[in-house]
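Methods — Computational structure assignment.
A single polypeptide chain was analysed. Its primary sequence is given first, followed by the predicted tertiary structure written as structure tokens.
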Amino acid sequence: MKPTLESNSRSRGVNLGHLAYVLWNRLGMIFILVLLCAVLSFTAPNFLDSANLMNVLKQVSIIAILAAGMTIVILTGGIDLSVGSTVALSGVISVMISAAGVNPFLAMAAGVAVGYAVGFINGFFIAKANLPAFIVTLGSFTYVRGLAYVISAGYPIVLYSEHFKFIGAGNILGVPFPIYIMLFVYAVMFWMLNYTMFGRHIYAIGGNEEAARLTGIKVKSTLINVYSISGLLAGLGGIVLAGRLYSGQPTAGQMYELDAIAAVILGGTSFTGGVGKIQGTIIGVLIMGVISNGLTLMDVNYYWQLVVKGGVIVAAVLLDRLRAKAA
């Protein structure tokens, strides 16, 4: 039977719809980022100045590091609400150790190790005790922040080490050092997700955890490693922020977990797991950073900036739902 004109037009409509869906998934957020930059170049003074653009990259570097870890967590279908609190705890502990006269590099390593430990504990309870990730990380969101306050007695701890300060505030060839750290983290994560068995296991678990288990993937150990990496990167973000602020502050990192989650979802990673790319996350991070920077340059009240950020988070979840329906 020969295809009719109606069936051909319907087929073309389906193909065009699928093509539009693929193009939006691959290029939609890049288009939005370019559009935002174009609008802000007219509405926000000095937005396109090289110094301001470099400042945007520096400002988003810590959220970007957290979002890299959040990406692999969400790819497994999980969530990590503890990263902001981990930033505070790792910063406080590493600065306190440095202030006690310990080698600053050992102090920074201790801060990263603290982050890894928080992530490992989260992963252990999620994987071994089969507890919901939301509940486990909500608990650590609270007790980890509490530990930061207890250890610091609620006061900032001043950082004296110049080596430590360089991590957060130094420059190489005119480029802030945190940007190099951010790029290194994303290069490693890109390699891990695209070229290692561990990366394939992450996608498999997010796609169908039971099917992944039946194919022989060690789901529990993979989940523990995923949350441990998220915690480690939060610890790294904590020492970068401490170096930038010249202090370890128990109040540091507040709301960072929401910014990281919003950036990941904006970047195309599905809340239900199994779908997403690390390169999409960096686009989501830049969108969040450009919005924040633009609002600041336009002298928008900070409280209204919070309103806009909240709206972006809701929009990110809505986009995820629309993508899931269109798939």
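Note: The two ends are 30 Å apart (CA to CA).
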